[in-house]
Each structure stands twice: as C-alpha cells, then as structure tokens.
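Database export, one record per block. Field names are fixed; values are copied verbatim from the stored entry.
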Amino acid sequence: MSQKLLLVADDQEDNRVILSAILTHKRYAVLLAVNGEEAVAQARQHLPALILMDLQMPVMDGWEATRILKADPRTAHIAIIAVTAEDQTPERLEEAGFCAYLRKPFLPRTAALAVELCLADAEPRPRWFALPPMGVHVPLAHE
C-alpha cells in the first residue's frame, strides 16, 4: 500500500516542522506550504488526501484557501483540518468545509487522531468534530 499524501499549510516554520514530524512518524508523505496561495497551488498540483490548514497566514489566509479548494471540483473532495490558536465556532468551520478543528497547542497524538478520523472510510462517523487543545477527541453529533 502506498503512503497517503498530506499537505501542511502554516506560515510558522516550527509548526510545519512539528506537524511534518508527527505525520511522517505515522507513515504519511508530507508536502509543505507557507501560505494559503501556496497551499492552493500544491493541492491542485498534487491532490493530497488531506490538508492541515492554518487559518491565519499571510498572502492568503486558510479561510480563503479552503473556500477556493472547496469550490473547485478537482479539489472539493480533499479533507481539510482547520489548525489555529484562536477559538472558532463549530458551525462556522463546518459551513466552510473543514472536517475537524485542531486547536493549538495540541498533543502529537491529538493531531494524528484528527488526521486518522478525517481520512477514515468507516461509517458511521461524525461529519465534523472538534479536538480540544491538549485533550481527547470529543465527537459532535450532527445530522
């Protein structure tokens, strides 16, 4: 079985390094982007299985990058996890097309769990879930 390709989009080098280390340890192949514009270009070129998208980035933020990707039929299927240090409402994130919300700071196992759950093919699973910082997975039941 080949490695699943994931994209990490974050303007902070430390965050890219940490997430990349977590994901490669879990045997994923990882691409990196430093802003939303680069994330959109990488996603269109490589079609990753999942994107970990920082919401606050220069050039183009994660909100706009996600809007563009979800509007494009070639990339609309890509699972995208919102990664941010700011509080967000589940309704806004779900409406924007994110499959999960990973709040900084987070434990490595929490980031890995978010990826695994968003990539899972098994049903039933929540359409959207939040992962509290430094905490455990708490599914949100949405019909």
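Remark 1: Residues 122-126, 134-143 have pLDDT under 50 and may be disordered.
Remark 2: The first strand starts at residue 5 and ends at 9.
End of record.
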